[in-house]
Amino acid sequence: MDCKILFVFPDWEDRAYEGFLRDLKAQTFHEIVLFNYVDGLHPTETRLIVEKIKEFCLSEDISICELNLTKNDFISNWNVINNFFIEKEIDKKEIFIDLTTTPREVLWIALYNLTKKVKSITYFYHQPEEYNQDWLTRESEAPRLLLKHSGIIDPLKQTALVIITGFDSERVNQIVNYFDPKKVILAIQKGNQFENQTRNNDKLFQIEVEKEILDIDAYDGDLGFEAINNKIGELSPDFNIVIASLGPKLTALSMYKLFLSYPEIALCYIPCKDFNVEYSKGIATTITGKVELFKKNDFNENK
Amino acid sequence: MTKLLKNPFEYEAANNLDDDDIISFYIEDYNYSRFLNSNRNIFLVGERGSGKTMTLLYNSFKIQHLKSKKGKQSANYDYVGIHIPCNTPLFHKKEYLLFNDDFKASVLCEHYLALTIVYSICDSLREIKEVDETISADSEMKNSLFEEFEYLIDTTDLNRKIGFIASVRLFVARELNISQKKINSENAESFYDNAYSFSSIVIPFIKILKNTPAFSKSHFLLMIDDAHDLNKYQIRNINSWIAYRDHSDFSFKIATAKINRPEFITATGGSILEGHDFITVDMEKPFQNEKSDFFLMAKEILEKRLAKTGFVSDVDSFFPINADFKQNLEKCKQLVREKYISKNPLASSKQVSDYVYKYSRAEYFRSRGTNANLPPYSGFETIVDISTGVIRNLLDPCYWMYDAAISHNNSGKIMAVTPTIQNHIIIERSKRMWERLANGLDREVDGCSKEQAKQIFNLFENLAVLFKKRLLEHKSEPRAITFSISQVNSETKQIHESLIELINIAQRAQIIYTRIGSAKDFGKQEPYYVPNRMLMPAKGLDPHGQYARVSLKVKDLWAAATQNKELPFLNNDNNEQVMGDLFSGL
C-alpha cells in the first residue's frame, strides 16, 4: 500500500480538530506532519487542539511529526520548511494537505517543496457553519512577496494587481495603496454563502485606479483557476502581475497553480497580527480534490 | 494627446498621466527647478499627494524636451533629468534576506538599483529622436560607443542592429531578467558572478554618454522617487553614492515621504551630512493666507484645470462663498474693529488689523447659537484651508463637488458649484475622516494595533474638544489649531516616544502633518503638528486657523490618548507660540 502523509496546520477553530477527524476517516494515513506556530495566536486554545491531535495519533498508532514555525519570522519559516523537505523522503508517497486553517504562506512554501518531489497532492478543505459577523482579522502588516515567488519583473511593464477578494475590504485597499498599480483586477467569489454578496461586494473597495471585476467560483472543480488564468494570459504581455489571495482558502491553491503556469508572476501575502478567536463556528461541508503540480518547464518537457 | 478627463479635478497619480497632461497640469511658477537643476544632491521631502512625483516627472528630460518642442524652442541639454521610480515590485523583493551574508544582500540590492538606473536613463533618452539620430548618424562614434560599453562591462551581448541606447536598454532588461531567475532558483548565489554596482555600470555608462557631442556638457539628475519604500541596503547604497565626491557628471534628487524618511548611514557605516553632502527641500508650502505660495499655486492649479472645461473666469466665481457666511464674517470684522477701537482709541492701524485678524472669525463662531447648525463652509479660501497645503487634498473635495454639481445639472456644463453643494461635500468628507478614526486606523495602516487606533481616536477627539473650547472662549489665540509638544525630558521620554509612534501612524494615514518651526527658546527649530484641516468642519471648527500653535504637555497628550482625559484648558494661558510674521507664511 502506498504510504500516505497528511500535512495539517491546526489552529483554535472548531473545524481544526473536527476537520482532522474527517481527514482520518477519509483516508488511512501512515504519517501526520503537524505545522505549528510556537508564538501563534490564541495559544491556549490552539495548544488544546494540537494536544488532542497528538493524543489521537498516539492512540491510533499513527506516526506524527511536529514542525515548529515562528509566526513573526518568515525567513526562519522558509528555512525550516525547506530543510524539512530536503531531509524528508516523500517521492513515492501520496501527499494530502488539510488547507483549512493552514496560513497561505506556509501552504505555498510547502507546495514549492512538494512540486520538486511529487506530481500532485490531494487537499481537504472544511467549511465552517458560519464566519464571525463582526470582524475576522485586524492589524495587518505590510504586504510581502513570497520568497522565490516574487516574479520576474520587467522594467518595460507597469504593475497589475490581481486580488482574490474576501471579507476584509480594508486589506484590498491596503494592498492597492502599497503597490500603486496601473490596473487592479478584483476576482470576486460568486454566490451568497456566508452572506458573501454583502461582505465581499466590489462597492466596499475604494479603489481609484482602473479596475475590472472578475467573477470566480473557488468551489467549482477548478478552484477558480480558469477564470484567473485567462485574465493573466491577457495581462501578462503588458503588465508585471502581482497576485494576492484574500478570499476562499481554496484560491490559495489555484494561485499556486497559476504561478506554476506563469513563473513571472509574483505571489503576495498579507500577514495579520490578530485573528478573531471567534473567527468561525462549527464545521460544515468538506471539499476535497486533487491538484496537479506541473511547472511550466515540466509541461514543455512532457509535451 | 491630452487625456479627456470627465471631471477636471480628477486626481490621477502622476505616474499615470501622459506627458501632455504633465505639462498642462504642472504649475511652472511654483516648481523646484532652481533646486533640481543644480549639481547638488537634494532630498525632496513631502507627504503623499504633495506633488513629489509630479515635480520629478515635470523636470525629467523627456518632459522638458517635449515642452521645448511644443514651444518651438531648442531643448536644453545642460541638465538631463532621469526619473527613477522605486515603488515597483522589483524593489519589494525580499530574497536578499535569504543570504546569511550582509555583504551579498547589499550586492544584490545594489545590483537591482544600478540596473534600474541605467534602464531609466536609456528609457528616458531613447524616445528622443534627435538623441538617437545624433549618436547613430556617425557610424564611427556609434561603433566606438558599443566597443567602449562592451569593454567596460565585459560583455559582447549588445545588439548592434539597433541604436546604442536602445541596445543598452535591452541588455539591462535582459540582465535584470536573468538575475531575477537566478535569485528565484535553487542556485541563488550564482547571480553574484555577474552582479553590477553603481561604479561598474552606472558611472561608466554616464561617462560614455558624456563622450558624445549631445551630452558632453550635460549634468545628469538621477531623480529617485519613493525612496521611503527602499530597504536598508538600498538606502545605504544610495547614501554611499551621495557621498561620492565628484558631482560634475551627475547628482541625486531623492523624493521621499517625511514619515519613514531614509536614514543617512552609508554602506560602509559612515554617514552623509546635511549641508555638506545634500540639502533638504520641504515641499509643504506655507498656506495660511491668500498671499502665501500655496494659496497662489492652488489658485493656478484649479484655474488651469477649469480652463480645460471652457471656464475662463477666476476660481472664486466657480467656488463662490455662501453669501450669508460672507456677510456675517464681514459684520463680525466690523464689530470687532469697532470694539477694539473704542477700547484702544490710540491703536495704530497695524494693531487694529492684527486684532481684527485674530478675533473676527472667532467672533463669528462665538456668535452662533449653541443649537445652530454647522457653519456653511464654502468658498475657494475654505477649500484651500481644508487642503492643509497638500495638492491631493485640494483636488479631492473639488472632484466630488464638481461631480455633485454635474449630477444636479441637466445641461452637463456648469459655471459654478453652489455653496450648498460645496458645504455638503466638505461636511461629508470631514465626517468620513472622523469615521476612519472611529473605525480604527489599524484597519488601514500596517503596524497599527487596535489599541493604538483607539488611542489615536481619543487623541484627536480631545484635540477637537480643546480647539473648540479655545475657539469659543480663549482670550488670546482662539483659532490656533496646531500644536507642539512640551516638557519632554528624561522622565517623560518614554511616553513621548509612544506618543510620537501614534502621531507617526496618524501621519501615515494623512490625518496629521509634521512641520518644523521656530521654538520659543533661543530661536531653535522644533517640530509642530498640524491636524488635517479636513477634520475641522465636522466639529464646527474654523479650518482657517491662525498663526499660532498651542503648546501641549506630553503628559497631557498621553493622558488624552490613553485615558481619554480632556486636555487642560485655560482661557487666558500664555502657552501659545506665534508662528512668525502674519504674512510670511512660516
Characterization of this structure:
The complex is a heterodimer of chains A (303) and B (586). By secondary structure, chain A is α/β, with parallel strands linked by helices. Chain A is built from nine helices and 16 strands. In chain A, helix 1 links the parallel strand 1 and strand 2 (31-37). The model of chain A is unreliable at 298-303 (pLDDT under 50). By secondary structure, chain B is of the alpha/beta class. Chain B is 48% helix and 10% strand. Chain B is built from 21 helices and ten strands. Chain B has helices at residues 19-25, 33-36, 52-58, 61-70, 89-92, 102-126, 129-137, 139-153, 164-184, 198-210, 232-242, 293-307, 315-318, 323-343, 349-367, 380-387, 391-407, 419-439, 450-473, 493-508, 554-562; strands spanning 42-45, 79-85, 219-225, 250-256, 279-282, 483-486, 512-518, 525-531, 548-553, 576-578. In chain B, helix 11 (232-242) links the parallel strand 3 (219-225) and strand 4. Classes of the chains: A alpha/beta (303), B alpha/beta (586).
Short précis:
The complex is a heterodimer of chains A (303) and B (586). Chain A has 303 residues and is an alpha/beta fold. Chain A is built from nine helices and 16 strands.
What topology does this entry show?
The complex is a heterodimer of chains A (303) and B (586).
Chain A: E1 4-8, H1 14-26, E2 31-37, H2 43-59, E3 63-69, H3 74-87, E4 94-98, H4 104-117, E5 120-126, E6 130-131, E7 137-140, E8 144-145, E9 158-164, H5 169-179, E10 183-189, H6 196-199, E11 210-216, H7 225-235, E12 239-245, H8 250-261, E13 266-269, E14 272-275, E15 280-281, E16 286-292, H9 296-302
Parallel strand pairs in A: 1-2, 1-4, 2-3, 4-5, 9-10, 9-12, 10-11, 12-13
Antiparallel strand pairs in A: 5-16, 6-15, 7-14, 8-13
Chain B: H1 19-25, H2 33-36, E1 42-45, H3 52-58, H4 61-70, E2 79-85, H5 89-92, H6 102-126, H7 129-137, H8 139-153, H9 164-184, H10 198-210, E3 219-225, H11 232-242, E4 250-256, E5 279-282, H12 293-307, H13 315-318, H14 323-343, H15 349-367, H16 380-387, H17 391-407, H18 419-439, H19 450-473, E6 483-486, H20 493-508, E7 512-518, E8 525-531, E9 548-553, H21 554-562, E10 576-578
Helix pairs in contact in B: 1-4, 6-9, 6-10, 8-10, 14-15, 16-17, 17-18, 18-19, 19-20, 19-21, 20-21
